[in-house]
């Protein structure tokens, strides 16, 4: 019971009578309203850009004040090093140039050990694979004293050879 | 919706509803304050664009809220403004009407209780449906309908009274 069809004919007639009174004209002008809206829009945009600029300035200031120290990162880098095979130094002796003997070079033991013949039982790689398979029992017995191929002593590991030959 | 279409829609809404909205606001405010409120509503309409729901109820609801806010501020600043708002001169155009004198119509409306007057104005001059009036007044539909019928009944009583008959 609350829609327009529920109105009586008398009520509808009264509606029509009242509707004949038209509202008074206003002093409002749409052009002024649009101008005011445009002005407010401009003001709002200006404030938006000001806020953005302020945020950027604050961020820049903060980043300058609390600037973190550069981090030192340590890492291992593998780089190939070229070992000179031979160096010839000319030393004039009595006006005659001479070629000096090759300077001593450092030869690691492992290189010399691995450089042994591959099929040799004393080859380091062969020996290592054998130990990995069978355990320590695969190690050869200590050679008797005075044998031809003694086990290298620690000092032998840092042996100094002439000319870098193995 | 594009800007040009928005502008056309606002222009159309202004032509159709500006005077009715001012009349609606005159229930609570004097003429200049009512026009200020309506102007502010149209400015917001231009800035934000038309709402997704029906525009007409939205306009009346915004005007209603604006009037209430204005009255609160006015009560703090100057209570005399309320007294001015009670002056109901200039609600309608002084057009000649065979059946209803304009001043008489204003007086009839003035004598109605606030809810009944608002329902009658939204229905007749706002051209809103009853569900839309209920949404604007934030009341149940049946309550709005009863207010409206009660307002019409009271207006009819006053129009049919001997005093009013002698006056016309």
How far do the termini of chain B sit from each other?
51 Å
Supply Rg of chain A: 50 Å
State the secondary-structure class of chain A: mainly alpha
Multimeric status of the protein: heterodimer
Please tally the helical runs of chain B, counting DSSP H or I stretches of 4 or more residues: 9
H/E topology pattern of chain B: HHHHHHHHH
Largest sheet of chain A: 2 strands, antiparallel
Secondary-structure element pattern of chain A, one letter each:
HHEEEHHHE
Instruction: Assign a percent range to the helix content of chain A.
Output: 40-55%
Can you give the helix content of chain B as a percent range?
A: over 70%
**Beta strand count of chain B:** 0
- Kindly estimate the percentage of residues of chain A that lie in beta strands according to DSSP: 5-15%
What Rg of chain B do the Cα atoms give? Answer: 17 Å
Shape of chain B: globular
Biggest pleated-sheet summary of chain B: none
As residue ranges, the low-confidence spans of chain B are: 164-168
Total of DSSP H or I helical runs spanning 4+ residues of chain A: 5
How much strand content do the residues of chain B show? under 5%
In short:
With 166 residues, chain A is mainly alpha-helical. Chain A contains five helices and four strands. The radius of gyration of chain A is 50 Å and the shape is elongated.
Q: How are the secondary structure elements laid out?
A:
The complex is a heterodimer of chains A (166) and B (168).
Chain A: H1 9-19, H2 30-65, E1 90-93, E2 96-99, E3 104-106, H3 109-114, H4 124-134, H5 154-157, E4 160-162
Antiparallel strand pairs in A: 1-2, 3-4
Chain B: H1 3-25, H2 31-48, H3 55-77, H4 80-85, H5 102-111, H6 114-124, H7 130-137, H8 141-160, H9 162-167
